[in-house]
Amino acid sequence: MTARATATGLLTAALITLGTLPATADTPPPAQSATDTLPPAPTPEQAASAPRTLDTLSRFFARDGALARTAAAPRVDGASVPVRILSPDFVAGKPGAPVARVEFHASRAVASDGQKASLWTVRRPAGWQVVNIATGDDEIRYAEQGGRLLPGGLVFREPQIDAWYVQKGTKVLPLDEDAIRAVGRNGTTLVAYRDRVARAYADKLPGSSYAHRGAAGGYAAQAPAASRPAPATAAAVGVIAALALVAAAAHRRRTHP
């Protein structure tokens, strides 16, 4: 699968989503990135289309000499979409838990030469703020694809295997090849999907011995020391672990200065 360039580290985005977590002597805070100073706004769309965001996008699209920064002319295309990640509560079998929960919103940005990027926004006390810019428009594209396949369905990602699905009622249908490998081309039932993710991840949830060994989420590989989360609540660690796996298992993204 294709690596995605990013304007801020994925773990940084996870930490921002959860709010500020306490730092410890052996867990320094993430370095400041290009998106840290982007201003908040009343809506995700306004945050994504703010002049300073568009200026940052121009630099992002011009990286590696792809085109001149002054010629990038980025624009934000359409409304933002909520991006949902497989819920630890669902994996644990908590009654009434939805299959996934919203972690951030994404907006599609397009450059003059057709390059696309996904702007990730989270709600902060002062409003919505862009916390990450990644190449491509996976988040929006899969939301659109899922809406066509199961209108009104819930599109979500299983980050441990980088798989995208859409769920409605008792149906869970795959949206990409990773999901097809997991549940088959014709999909599965919600109950069967829960059984599968429970077998895969239930013993690796926050609070488990696996998590206490520093491998929460299903992988033993550690994040870089500067990005590892400091001790937090079990729920917070679970979300950080889930988002961290996007980087560890799927996108191996490089940081944009």
Automatic annotation (TrEMBL):
Keyword terms, alphabetized: Membrane, Signal, Transmembrane, Transmembrane helix
Region forming the signal peptide: 1-25
Residues spanning the membrane: 232-250
Domain of life according to the entry: Bacteria
Region of interest called Disordered, as start-end residue ranges on this chain: 22-53
Listed Low complexity bias regions: 22-37
Record protein name field: Secreted protein
